[in-house]
Design brief:
- With 261 residues, the protein is an alpha+beta fold.
- The protein is built from eight helices and seven strands; from the N terminus they run αααββαββαβααβαβ.
- Strands 2-1-4-3 form a four-stranded antiparallel beta sheet. Strands 5-6-7 form a three-stranded mixed beta sheet, with helices on one face.
- A hairpin with a 5-residue loop joins β3 and β4.
- α1 packs across α2 and α3 packs antiparallel against α4.
Length: 261
Amino acid sequence: MVNYSLIALLLGRLQMTTLDALRTYNKLAGSIFCKANQKPSFKDGTFKATTLEKEVQDLVATKKLGESMLREGDDAGLAKTFVYAVPAANIAHLRLFRSYRVRENAGANCKIWGAARATTAAPTFCKRITIADDGGALEAFLDGGLRFNNPARLVLEEAMKSFGGGSKLRCLVSIRTGHPGNIGLSQPDAFQKILPTEMVGVLKRIATNCEETAHELAGRFRQLPDRYFRYSVSHRVGSISLEEWKKMNEVQVTRKPTWKR
């Protein structure tokens, strides 16, 4: 699994080239998702979140493009970028961290490193992070993948807010991180019987959300050729986890287009 939110920040907010973003991501992953950065098993999260924070802070300082997600001054001609997370208290509601202004539901203008932390706060990997909104209210966040692992619909909604309903869609590209295989549910063992039902529901939504969204958009753009592109990697790469960063070469050599609408 590749954390595309981090890559989005590198490409969009920090204005890197594709090659520079890939190199930087590999460096970040090597520092964050490694044995040297692992925490004791009794602590929250597998990896030290402070390492990610420092790495991103240092990177932001070298780029000299501002520390906050929201760009200062004129951003004409620059890619509009957002990443998202979910409140730990209620994962039904997304929070978007944007590089651009919107008229309604603007959300908190946090630091870039804060957005990076929130969108990587996946359970068992990094602990949740608390971020203050513009009014000073504190809110704890988890990785947005718990609610939306395929943000293609969100992209369309954000485009509508930014460019208006009269704008013409040129192209929508969706990048899939692979599929680990068939999803089923076997007879529960002793551990599964004590697994909270709330978590079961969360896992079920994650498993179904990605492909439901992909199929919906494929049908939506069926009569509009060359508008919707869905790219993926091989099924076996879908089982690569975040901490297996050394397998990035497998992702790079096996990626292939799956749908073109």
